[in-house]
Sequence to fold (301 residues):
Amino acid sequence: MSLESSLRADIVEVGRRMYARGYTASNDGNISVRLGEARLLMTPKSVCKGFMTPDMMCITDLEGRKLEGDRDPSSEMLMHLEVYRQRPDARAVVHAHPPTATGFAVAGIPLDRAVLAEVLTTLGSIPIAEYATPSTEELPEAVRKYIKAHDGMLLANHGALTVGADLFGAYYKMETIEHFARISLVARLLGREHVLSREEVGRLQALRGAYGIAAPAPICADAADALGPGRRPPAIGSAAPGGTGEVACQVVQAPEGGGRRLVLELTHGAAPPAPAGAGGEIRLTYRELSALIEDAIRSLR
Ligand SMILES: [Zn+2]
Fold:
């Protein structure tokens, strides 16, 4: 089987798995892979990814001009082209709408807490690219900010995007994101998340070499702790922290010190975030804090 035939078959298989796992509904999602240095093999627009056949794929150049195929390339082709432009190491791009991860993307909650070793070693953190209208020039622009430092990200109010050194590598990162989102949701519903220490995150990062994981950027300290409340992560091409340039590292929330921090999230809604770097072991929501104060006042009476 030629390389092209086997890649066509691989795209069909990845599409089938994504649809079977509920990562896409109807005609959602798209997949592409490098076919040599100057061409891409890509899913066509308006087909269900669960029922594709190898002959449906399009071949385009790196500017998005169609070279081969009966159908038009994916409606999100611009996003794929931008990823390949920014990441010469990326050989494949997968985009889907896995429901739990997309729920986080809709809620505006990035998957950036240091809780699972395998997520830290592979993806580091999973940020959220700002909302952009699908299929327009806005989407590649939103993705550009994070793609040099991340192999996976959420797309605000939309879905998720992953890249890999090969097609299955990109697809497995999509599985990891959705799996991580489900575990994070369960932990938060249960009311607590034990966050790994910054020291442990350092040890896990050191394991990347041992596992042969070629991450695009290092993990960096909790930006809020490092730079002060309200600041943004350090960025490439931006002298001052807090600029709108490209993010240069994988910002992970991990507390300083040898122990673990217990994060309580028993209430939902408008509770203000706990102050960063306060040095406490337990974070309380506004409602929990109010209850503690009320108890204290009652005991004084
Ligand atoms: Zn989409």
